[in-house]
Amino acid sequence: MSTTRATPAAAPPTGSGGRSAGPGDPDPHRWRNRLYRFDLRYTPYLLVAPFFLLFLVFGVFPIIFNGVVALRHWRLDDATLTGWAGLANFEKLLTDDDFWNALYNTFGIFLLSTVPQLTLALVIASVLNRRLRAQTWWRVGVLLPYVTPITASTLVFAAVFARDTGVANWVLSVLHIGGAEPIDWRSAKWSSWLVLATMVNWKWIGYNALLYLAAMQSIPKDIYEAAAVDGAGVWRQLWRITVPMIRPVVIFTVVLSTIGGLQLFTEPMLLEQNAQAARGGANGEWQTIAQLIYKVGWKDLNLGYAAAMSWALFLIIVVVAAVNALITNRLGGGKR
Amino acid sequence: MSTTVVKRRGGRRRAALTGRAPADTPASIWNYLFLALVFVFSAFPLYWMLVIATSTDAALAKLPPQVVPGDQLLTNLREVFSLQDVYFIQSLANSAIVSSVVTLSVLFFCSLAGFAFAKLRFRGRNVLMVIVILTLTVPNQLGVVALYIVMGEIGWNGTLLAVIVPGLVSAFGVFYMRQFILEAVPDELVEAARIDGATTMRIYASVVLPAVRPALAVLGLLTFVGTWNDFQWPLITLNGTDYPTSMVAISDLASGNYVLYRRVLAGALVATIPLLIMLFIGGRQIVRGIMEGAVKS
Fold first, then answer.
1. Using an 8 Å Cβ cutoff, are A154 and A267 in contact?
2. Residue B16 and residue B5: Cα distance in Å, rounded?
3. Could you tell me what percentage of chain A is helix, strand and coil, using 3-state DSSP and rounding each to the nearest 5?
4. Is A74 contained in some domain?
């Protein structure tokens, strides 16, 4: 750009002062001025437009449309079976044993994973918060699970928890834990939930630890010094100072793991020998709701019913996340 | 400062009495042991993937299990890549295409929008930003049934477009770029550029972009990893086609009544390596990025 023409742009955007700068040749300046005002006023919208357009079409619309689909008959195998179903899909939901079983499984696995996950993350974060050698390497190390594809890690865990050749059973037998028979991890609810919770915990502990660590580093140091003078030990400091001080991040992670935990999909899918059947065990021992939605929609080809389920799941997530946030908030507040 | 206290005679006791913040306390041997344990736990599945991927069926059936990698990696890989109905090479290429396009697009559009939200004045800015933040908490996954129908209407189901286009922008990206630009780009710099006659796009290109390179690196890494690892939506829209992503291909490998783990995990290992390389190169940035995202929440 030439440097001699800097003056017109300096004119106030609403005034017409730019025109007087070139009386002999007013047109280019007026044009420039108009362009400048247009740029100032409308370019911001152009910049944010791609996000909102794409989000509207592929984010908001599907969720609303999902509501419409949930109220219709919509089958993939029989296009003639359309039309309003009213609340039939939702009524079916209420008496569907598969749905309640999946809901039960989802909550069980969710509880088994969230609580140890966040507690351990807190402990790891507080250790990472010490003065450490090779600090960065420890932090990168805890992120190994985060970058590993869930499909890959799930299959490894599936092999580890195999009944006859799995390492888990071998370790248990060496330690003389459990009975003489190897545990068939996939045959009971408790064992399959434990396996899935292990996978989820493995994946997210490090990530949560880093979130906590970030928050811990902004706690003023003199608070700890004062607490130590008052005789508070390491654990007391952790629960009485650190946790309350990082409460916003704790709430954030609780909400985040609620949203993630209730939508658990990849792990239960691939724990199964025949992954794409989406049964979640021979008798649905560990079938989660997200998995059931996939089965109903794309195996049973009943999209309308699947849409109703995902709406129900959505409402459940909202309620649980809100309740969790509220409880966490209270707990933290009580400790102040 | 506690350091001066420590140097005195009997300093250790004094230090214990006055106390030090955890961040000033040197880690004890127990802390290191604990972290080492955590590291072993984190790395174990990766290591075990390597063990299984390099072994024979006979070696895997043995008890006690073998704990060192075998020498059958090439054999297993050859089997994976030559499988007829899984298209493994194609799937790796597809994953690379999808992840690269999505990452570049997220970086471009989110930095544009983040710039607008951070530094430009326009009507409705605050309302729109609140919408972005609310979006962060809405799981898009819950619209999959309808999204599948929409994609069917457009005719994109079974094509890479169905996976790419919904990922082109991300609310997290907009939020993240806005936070970074707010701090990294001084208002004065933007105003000075304006006075010099720069257009908004010119300011974006010459002032904002150079200043946000670190944030772009972080967002790029996170987006690439996330997109590469995505499973549910690609499975729904690409399953059964000749164009799966590598994650769908792996689940294809693991489907059937008789799963050969050595083969599946040889494939999984290949699909994991790009991400490990990214963690190795950009680990510091990824860590910083995640931590920066947290403080502001």
1. yes
2. 10
3. 70, 0, 25
4. no
Interface of B with A in 181-240 (CB under 8 A): 194-197, 199-201, 204, 225, 228-229, 231-232, 235-236, 239
pLDDT, tens digit, for every residue of A229-272?
Answer: 887 888 888 888 888 888 889 988 988 888 889 999 999 999 98
In whole angstroms, give the CA distance from residue B295 to residue A240: 20
Using the beta-carbon criterion (under 8 Å), do B284 and A293 form an inter-chain contact? no
- Overall size of chain B counted in residues: 297
Domain-embedded: residue A180:
yes
In 3D space, the residue among A266, A44, A63 whose CA is nearest the CA of residue A155 turns out to be A266
Place of tokens 């690379």: B96
Q: Which domains does chain B have, with CATH numbers?
A: 3-79 (no CATH), 86-294 (1.10.3720.10)
Structure-block tokens of residue A154: 């799930």
Q: Is A278 on the interface with B (CB under 8 A)?
A: no
- Cα–Cα distance measured from residue A68 to residue A71, given in angstroms and rounded to the nearest whole number: 5
Report the distance separating Cα A48 and Cα B112, nearest Å: 7
Mapping DSSP to helix (H, G, I), strand (E, B) and coil, where does residue B257 land?
A: coil
Q: Would you state the pLDDT for residue B16?
A: 52
Q: What's the number of domains chain A is made of?
A: 1
Q: Which residue has the tokens 């649905």?
A: A284
- pLDDT higher at B263 or B25: B263
- B119-155 pLDDT, tens digit per residue, is 999 999 999 999 998 888 777 778 889 999 999 999 9
Tell me the C-alpha distance between A66 and B54, whole Å. 45
**Distance from the A6 Cα atom to the nearest Cα atom in chain B, whole angstroms:** 6
Check the CA dihedral A61-A67-A72-A73 and report its sign: positive
Nearest Cβ partner for A140 among B23, B125, B279: B279
Q: Would A230 be classed as within a structural domain?
A: yes
The domain in which residue A269 lies consists of 96-334
List C-alpha distances in Å: B137 to A153, A323, B131, B295: 26, 15, 10, 17
A89 vs B contacts (CB less than 8 Å): none
- Residue A11 is given by DSSP the state S
**Is residue A101, in this structure, part of any structural domain at all?**
yes
| pLDDT score at A32 | 78
- Sign of CA pseudo-dihedral A42, A45, A50, A56: negative
Q: How confident is the model at residue A25 (pLDDT cuts 50, 70, 90)?
A: low
DSSP state of A161: T
* Interchain CB contact of A61 with B (< 8 Å): yes
Alpha-carbon distance A212 to B291, whole Å? 8
Q: What is the value of pTM for the model shown?
A: 0.87
Amino acid code (one letter) for B263: R
b/e sequence A230-269, b meaning 16+ C-beta within 10 Å: eebeeeebbeebbbbbbbbbbbbbbbbbbbbbbbbbbbbb
- Assigned token pair, A213: 């660590």
